[in-house]
Each structure stands twice: as structure tokens, then as C-alpha cells.
Amino acid sequence: KKGVCANYAAVFSAIANELNIKTFIVEGYTKQFGKISNLSHAWCASKIDNKWYVFDPTWGSGYVNNMIYTRKIDNSYFKTNPNISITNHMPFDYLWQFLNYPITNDNFYNNKFQIDKTKIYFDFESEILKHENSSAEQKNLESAVRIEKNGLKNKMISDYLSEKKALVTFDNLNKISNDYNAAILEFNDYVAFRNKQFKPNISDIDLKKMIQTPRDKFIDCQERLSKVVDVDAQNIQNLKGLKQSLIQILPQVEEQLAFVNEYLSKNNFKRKGMFTKITLFGLKLN
Question: What pLDDT shows up at residue 286?
Fold first, then answer.
């Protein structure tokens, strides 16, 4: 079988985790012979006896020289201390440096690896624990913040940051879409109930809630959509589709809310004369 660094790291990580050795795949860029590589790289980090070590199964298996791969085992990339691996392996996200005083991308370029205790102490152990217990959206969001904070020194970092932000946007739009679809179902339930002239009888409070709840969800979706930024080409159509759907549905919902408010303001006799059949069913988004 053949593979690139990501494949090597994936196999190593899968085997290690099967053996109950907590292992993460780390993405970043590297330096060899004092020169920054123009290709991103992937390696692994494992926690053994409560201490983190770095493993690079790709570099440990051989090297490329003049576009020719030579198989050669190099154990210097096996179970490396983070303070050593940081001299040639720079994670995009400084969480995976496993250092209490992470170095910046500028430091990496300028070979400045000494500990700077004038910086704010970074408790990476607690942050990794927090990371493990976070949602995918929260993981991507916090990772993006750290990546940007550490400096966008090269295109590899910028591209990786863009990928993280696109994932955050995708997750955000997916949540808004799910809430929109839930509101559509609730609005359709209201429409069906209105076409039955609000029979069987329910309390005025429950009736108001039948239209108020989806209406509030639609408004919430609209407000959240207005705050979505960093939209890539892949997500822009989803964003436009959701915005257009809300533009179409909200006037219908507001009209029905006004109808219910008027209905509730009347006595039982006058309420009966207010009904005409409507067909305002919304369309669910895929």
C-alpha cells in the first residue's frame, strides 16, 4: 500500500487508539535542514504515562531526496519530547505543541525556541480535555481563534484557517437549517389546526403558542444568519437559500400571528365568523 503523510498518521493513530493509547493526528508544517517546507504535513501525538510525545511515522520510515524516496528507519522521530519536536514540527494550532509557553510562527521561522515565561501560561492539558468534550463546531471555532492568534505567517496556515472557518460556517448553517425546518413543521401544524377552525378546543395560551413559537424561531434564524461571516463558495448557496426562504415565509407567519391576536381579542360568537380556509404550507429545506 502507498500513502502520504496523512495516511501514515491515520494508520498510526488508529492502531495506537485501538491499543488504548490516546493519540491525535496533528496537522502543521515543518522545517528540514533549516528550510521551511512549502507543503503541509501530518503527524501524531500520543499520551503515554501521563506525558505527551510526538511521533512522525512518515519521517521515521524514510526520506525524499531529489524526488526519490529512500526507505530508512529513523527513530529520532519516535516518541519525541514536544520541546524537541517543536524545532522542526510546527502545528497550525498551538494547542498541539504541548507547551505551556507556545512559540509563535515567527519564533519557528527565526529558530527562537527558548521558553518565554513573560507570556501568559497556557494550560494545554486542561484545554485538550476541554477540546475532547466540545462539539465539532466549538472545536473548529476555538482552533480557528488560536491559529489566527499565532500569526498567519504563510499560505499553508492561511489555507488551514480558511478550512476551519468554513467548517464553523457549515456547522452553523446546518444548525440554523435544522431550526428552520423545525419551525416549518410547527407552522404547518398551526395551519392545519386553523383550517379545522381551531378544533378541538385548546386554551388561548396554547393557541397563541402554536403560532408564536415558530414565528420566534424564524426570527431567531434570521438574526443568526445576519451574523454569519467567512462564507466560502461551498456555503454561499446554502446561506442565500436560507435567507430567501425566510423572506418568503415570515410575512405569512406575521399575518397569522396578527390573525390569532385578533381572534383572541374577540368573544366566542365573533370568533366563529373569522374563518376562511388557507393553504400556507411551507416547504422544508433538504
Answer: 42
**Are 220 and 285 a contacting pair, CB within 8 Å?**
no
112: Cβ–Cβ under 8 A, 6 or more apart, which residues? 103, 106
pLDDT of the residue at 67: 63
pLDDT number for residue 234: 78
Q: In angstroms, rounded to a whole number, what is the distance separating the alpha carbons of residues 5 and 59?
A: 8
Q: Cell numbers of 64, please?
A: 525524499
Q: CA 55 to CA 5: how far, in whole Å?
A: 12
Cell of 208: 397563541
Query: Which residue ranges of the chain lie beneath pLDDT 50?
Result: 284-286
Hey, where are the domains in the chain?
5-133, 176-272
Identify the pLDDT of residue 5. 85
On whether the CB atoms of residues 43 and 30 are closer than 8 A, the answer is no
Per the confidence metrics, is the pTM higher than 0.70? Answer: yes
The answer to whether the beta carbons of residues 59 and 90 sit under 8 Å apart is no
- Give the 3-state secondary structure of 23-69: EEEEEEEEEECCEECCCCEEEEEEEECCEEEEECCCCCCEEEECCEE
- Across 92-128, b (16+ Cβ under 10 Å) vs e yields bbbbbbbbeebbbbebbeeeeeeeeeeeeebebeeeb
Report the candidate in 214, 196, 227, 197 with the shortest Cα–Cα distance to residue 284.
Answer: 214
Among residues 45, 138, 162, which one has the least CA distance to residue 96? 45
The closest of 135, 48, 156, 32 to 93, measured between CA atoms, is 156
